[in-house]
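Researcher: Go.
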Amino acid sequence: MRSLVYLGTVLIMSQFLVSQTLNDLTYLTKTGLSGSARFTGMAGAFGALGGDFTAISNNPAASSVFLNTEIGGSINLQALENEGKYFGESKSTNQDTFYFDQFGAVFVFNNTDEENPWSRISAAINVNRIANFDQQISLSGINNTSIADYFLYYANGIAFEEIQLYDDETISDIYRYLGDEIGFGAQQAFLGYQSYIIDPLSSNDLEKSYTSNINSINNLNNLDIINSGLHRKTSFNFSALYENILHFGINLNLHKLEFRNNQDFFEGNQDQDSFIYDVKFNNDLISYGDGFSIQFGGILKLENIRLGVTYDSPQWIDIQDETQQKISAYRFDEDFEIQEIIDPDITNSYSPYRLKIPSKTTLSFAYIFNMAGLISIDYSAQNLSNSYFSQNVTSEFLNSLNTEVNKTLNSINTLKIGGEYRLKDISFRGGYFFQTKNQDTNIDEDHALTLGIGFDFGGSNLNISFIKFEQNKDFKLFSKGLTSPYQIKENLTQLTLSYNFKL
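Model: Structure:
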């Protein structure tokens, strides 16, 4: 029988594990088309242009393109349709949200000494939401694999004596103990056994093989997902203009990440002779992260041509996870229907770990049609397969996850094309955004069409943009055992309003 000494260490939970999966990494590496209205109105093709707050967060050389000290911010309204596809069946959900998207200030110092090659220097700060995790998804389909396979994956190899309840022990006690002493897998085995979904092959305390109590080959799966949170980047910028030809800049970026994922899974439609039926499995994840990255950028002016280059270092984000779980299942016992509810009411707090999101290089080109307008193109490459999880201690789980990431995720290439036509104090804008698949199994690439209009009042300006953005991502139902794939297509309609004024 287990010792109860562990009861004195209730605050130490799963110290050498993390809870992340490939699904979560797909969310955490997500980027969007957000920021100022001028930037989004041209699909973000600002790498060779500058003179915009969100452009500063993309190419640090952008701030010395400003001629005056300015301050400004942006708000947007989003209408999001999420289409979930699971075993050929589609379900859609809709949501509307409102955000303060961006805020920035740039301080420009013009040099009046004509003999000094540094004609302008600038310092800026910009806060930009680079990803929004708010999302509601509903999936439904018929699957020949059962949730029992998830619990069997983790249970096989765990001694039967570890997942039993003995005298004077509670569900919470043992769930906590298993998390402290053995880990996440043992907790899953415990939930599966205590809900009667799985049983050992024998009653021997040392038995390590298990079998399913669910009998069905046409399981109805429902999955409801509610995500929330954001990835915010605060850029501290310095830039300078050399010989009125070359803009050069650097950003020191602070990253703030919050991600909440709530999943309610239901499995029904079991055969009439199935001992267990109508399973509900709830999983909650909260991730908090703080990180750092550096950017270097340059813009070269050659008459009407502008050339830009930006290097984004990897993002190093330190993350801490918390999880909660609950499961229920029905069974018949002596002609009585019984609902077994296993709710440990325990928050698993995992040891901090580091996520490295890979570096990115962007090349940019723009042509200026004097005062009439411009056309601009950005191309960037980022190898997501080089994303990497690490911890202070060696972790087989992390090693396995990193191998899966390397084999599954792709290098993504992004093309942005934007144009602007000026008619006195009014500017008309449009753009196109295209991004290759982050996994080979994705249904389609990501793409967006954008429109915008701007009004210059001399001492201030007002900009409005409208975008239609489609993003496609692939996920797995669970990370192990029940790994059936599903797809999510996001159809985003976004209206952004920005107002800047000169000081």
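Model: The mean pLDDT is 92.
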